[in-house]
Design a protein that fits this description.
There is one protein chain. The chain is an alpha+beta fold and about 450 residues long. It folds into 3 domains: about 90 residues, no CATH class; about 240 residues, no CATH class; about 120 residues, Sandwich (Immunoglobulin-like). About 25% of the residues lie in helices and about 35% in strands. The protein has 9 helices and 20 strands. Strands 1, 2, 3, 4, 5, 6, 7, 8, 9 and 10 form a 10-stranded antiparallel β-sheet that branches. About 10% of the residues have low confidence.
Length: about 450
């Protein structure tokens, strides 16, 4: 492949991403929850909290109560019911070099780290780290402006030397780590022993008086974590980001300070986590035979259900709308760097996209397509109209559980052929809140259908 062909592929991918982002934004704008949804997605799903760390009491209370682990109500509830481990361990202290953005070493500071608590299930590894800094850290870090802490080169291994998590460290650092620990893995060649992960993280509490900070690190996978009995955490960098504020306290940029040392933390995984099991339900009645339940699985932290619908017709995307979107590409103009687009052309691109979604006849065509392409309506995939409900599950006590808005949420809502639609979703109900009989409410083509299920008893 020559450079010209490669550039064309990159350009095409960049345009697709731009279009996809704008389409998602337009869908959100249709609902009056647009601003709230953007804020909440940053707070609980995206990678950092950008609102600052030293919260006023009411904000801190809101964050603590609603985003305690940042993995959704199902996991928070499991933790409240004891599905969490607080290891007894002494802090690990390292003498660290203090470096600024350009790598300038300006001092060294003793920094201690320990694990406050953690939980591990099939899809999540959530760890709360406690940091304690030497008093002179205040000479270099203003906790009032701190908005993020990152373990830049974190590796997590288990007792069988499986890579449970690896930060985006690049091939050179990855190979160095593997050599140090006698591991035989190739960079980015994931398998059952070298697990591909996602990550969200946020500083939860900071005390400038005590020079302490608490960081929640949520690792998650689309596959499945092994039944590990021990976990070993290795990192040499703690990157702290602060907002740069003007006299009116408006953010003008950020400054990063990196503490470079060496930390190794080891924890034993409790039996309830490495011997975790799944329970299953079967259908006992339904109001619509078209909805075929192929799995209904209950875990310590969530409930998953899979449904197949046959004899549907996959809709075709409106040709007129697609033609208008294709024309939008002509509005984009590359900047001098040859990578990004000019702000003016991005603005024109966005405005035209908004016009397509909000003016006739295109908006009606798009609405009809989305209706046919999403026969099962679910919160978090499609914004609901006022008064409309998505899918949810009820236990026999009448308690209602919605979709689990977690970064590890397993979901699939799509046509897998021209006539078959698959729905797979994760809900907030878990082993601690489930009952032997449950009711699944499915919004199918605008009608609320009821599927009653009963737990399968083991002989």
């Amino acid at each position: 492949m020559n450079n010209e062909e490669l550039n064309k592929i990159i350009e095409k991918s960049r345009l697709k991403i731009a279009i996809s982002n704008l389409e998602n934004e337009e869908k959100m704008k249709k609902n009056n929850k647009f601003k709230i949804a953007k804020i909440l997605s940053v707070a609980c799903v995206c990678l950092v909290l950008t609102t600052g760390i030293v919260f006023a009491k009411d904000i801190e209370k809101f964050i603590k109560e609603r985003f305690d682990l940042g993995l959704g109500k199902g996991i928070d509830n499991a933790a409240e019911n004891g599905y969490i481990e607080s290891p007894e361990m002494d802090p690990v202290t390292s003498d660290t070099n203090v470096e600024r953005d350009l790598g300038e070493i300006i001092d060294n500071i003793n920094t201690s780290v320990k694990i406050k608590d953690f939980l591990m299930d099939d899809y999540n590894l959530s760890v709360t780290f406690n940091f304690e800094f030497e008093e002179k850290v205040k000479d270099y870090i203003n906790f009032d402006n701190l908005h993020n802490i990152e373990l830049s080169d974190l590796f997590v291994l288990d007792e069988e030397n499986r890579i449970i998590y690896s930060a985006a460290v690049g091939e050179k650092r990855f190979n160095e780590f593997c050599k140090e620990h006698e591991l035989n893995y190739k960079y980015l060649e994931f398998d059952d022993n070298y697990i591909n992960n996602g990550l969200n993280w946020f500083p939860q509490r900071v005390s400038r008086e005590l020079n302490k900070a608490e960081l929640v690190y949520n690792m998650y996978t689309d596959n499945e974590y092994p039944r590990s009995k021990k976990l070993d955490f290795y990192f040499t960098e703690i990157t702290i980001s602060e907002d740069i504020l003007d006299e009116n306290r408006y953010v003008q940029g950020e400054e990063k300070t990196t503490l470079k040392g060496k930390w190794e933390l080891h924890v034993d995984v409790p039996e309830k986590m490495y011997k975790r099991t799944s329970e299953y339900y079967e259908v006992i009645s339904t109001t619509n035979e078209e909805l075929k339940v192929n799995t209904a699985k209950l875990l310590d932290t969530c409930f998953e259900i899979g449904i197949t619908v046959d004899n549907l017709k996959r809709p075709e995307y409106p040709e007129e709308v697609q033609k208008e979107k294709d024309k939008m590409f002509d509005l984009l103009v590359l900047s001098e760097d040859g990578i990004t687009y000019t702000e003016e052309s991005q603005k024109l691109f966005s405005e035209r996209n908004h016009e397509i979604y909000t003016t006739s006849p295109y908006k009606e065509m798009i609405a009809e397509y989305e209706k046919e392409n999403t026969p099962i309506i679910c919160e978090g995939i499609k914004f609901l109209k006022d008064g409309e409900e998505g899918c949810y599950v009820l236990n026999s006590n009448g308690k209602k559980f919605k979709c689990n808005m977690s970064p590890s949420r397993k979901c699939r809502h799509e046509f897998v052929s021209d006539t078959q639609y698959e729905y797979y979703e994760t809900f907030e109900m878990n082993k601690y809140t489930a009952t032997d009989k449950i009711t699944m409410m499915i919004n199918y083509k605008g009608n609320m259908e009821k599927i009653e299920l009963e737990k399968i008893r083991k002989n």
